Amino acid sequence: MNLKITIMALKQLRELSRTENKVLRIDAEMQGGCGTMMRFKLIEDEPRKSDIVITAEGIEFYVDLFTKRNLDEELTLDYDESEGFLFESEWGPMGLECHLA
User: Counting beta carbons within 10 angstroms of the beta carbon of residue 59, is it exposed (0 to 12), middle (13 to 18) or buried (19 or more)?
Assistant: First the structure.
């Protein structure tokens, strides 16, 4: 998986005050009924044994296997002042409420 980080997102990530012993996780969550969609979040979390670590711009992102299966191979992390962190793929915005909780 190839993760690109925009200049705006990189600036925000570097300014985050992070909790010690926590990692940045890209996390997927299923939502909806018949028209199920995925919601991706950027959160602080504990590392897990089966995590895959993706490094971009010197920043490590932890991804579990469920999330990895639902992410595109090419992914961009952007930041918008009004919406926060946003993931985009080759298919366009994955505007699925990505935030740092």
Answer: middle
- Model's pTM, two decimal places? 0.82
One-letter amino acid of 78: D
Q: How many helices and strands, by DSSP H and E, does the chain display?
A: 2, 8
| 3-state SS class at 72 | coil
74-80 and 52-56 as β-strands: parallel, antiparallel, unpaired?
unpaired
How buried is residue 7: exposed, middle or buried, by Cβ count under 10 Å (0-12/13-18/19+)? exposed
Token reading at 65: 């296997």
Q: What is the band of 33 on the pLDDT scale with cuts at 50, 70, 90?
A: low
DSSP element (H, E) containing 89: strand 84-89
72/58 Cα distance (integer angstroms)? 21
The letter for the amino acid at 74 is E
